[in-house]
Amino acid sequence: MPELPEVHALTVDLNGRLAGRLVERLEPVSFAALKTFDPPVSAVAGSTVERVDRHGKFLDFVLRGADGGELHVITHLARAGWLRWRDAPPPPPSGKPGRGALAARLVLDDGTGFDLTEAGTKKSLAIYVVRSPDEVPGIARLGPDPLGEGFTLEVFAGILKQAGRAQIKGVLRNQSTIAGIGNAYSDEILHAAKMSPFKPAAMTADETVLLYGAMQSTLRGAIARAEGLAASELKAEKKQGLAVHGRTGQACPVCGDTIRQVTYADSSLQYCPTCQTGGKPLADRVLSRLLK
């Protein structure tokens, strides 16, 4: 799933490609992906792209409609969605497997543009055509952006205090608490901070400072590696930059211990026992509660 660093890099890349361009049409292919009906998709035709914004993991294409009004085409790529830029007019949808099913297509006046695709059978990619980002329920519920100017150490400390005994892994990836951090970067942040994913969120002042610093350095480091890359390069860059997430059975790059995982119904987390849990493996079940 694309998280804050990848979505940030997409906004930078797409701003360079789209700002000031004229949109010929937005063409939904998977109508299950389109979550709105007013304004209609046809309202996008003839609009001009003003900029591309990010809200947590949401991409926001800000358009000036042909009637002068502002429109937003917003997408959440979910777990298996992706954006693929096209430098040529689009071919007819082929339906061939391998690169993901086509969910929607945005075509500019010269035929270039991008496709939104989604792999797998569970379809969660979402597209919204709205007049304001706040009309998208997921955006309206978002917590503060961890890289925003207002996200200070004091704000973070307040979030942790309010979360109380909740596991810190879940707090970090709860979009209503902090926007943009998902499964992968929560693993990476906790590894950098040398904290168990099951540690309670309410922690000492020194631990809060440590975790805040790990969050900032992990996310900003990932952005620095991803910024300037094209969409086609971002997945490989993310995978190469991860220390523990998705690396079960490999050696920890810090201490050399074997990276382990805990599996849930629809996801898993990875961690280093030596770095994060005092050398003790976590039980691989949902009710594990090893602290420190």
UniProtKB/TrEMBL annotation:
SMART domains: Fapy_DNA_glyco (SM00898), H2TH (SM01232)
EC number(s) per entry: 3.2.2.23, 4.2.99.18
Domain FPG-type: 243-277
Keyword annotations from UniProtKB, A to Z: DNA damage, DNA repair, DNA-binding, Glycosidase, Hydrolase, Lyase, Metal-binding, Multifunctional enzyme, Zinc, Zinc-finger
Domain Formamidopyrimidine-DNA glycosylase catalytic residue range list: 2-125
A biological process term (GO) from this entry: base-excision repair
Pfam families, alphabetized: Fapy_DNA_glyco, H2TH, zf-FPG_IleRS
Similarity comment: Belongs to the FPG family.
Protein name: Formamidopyrimidine-DNA glycosylase
Species of provenance: Herbiconiux flava
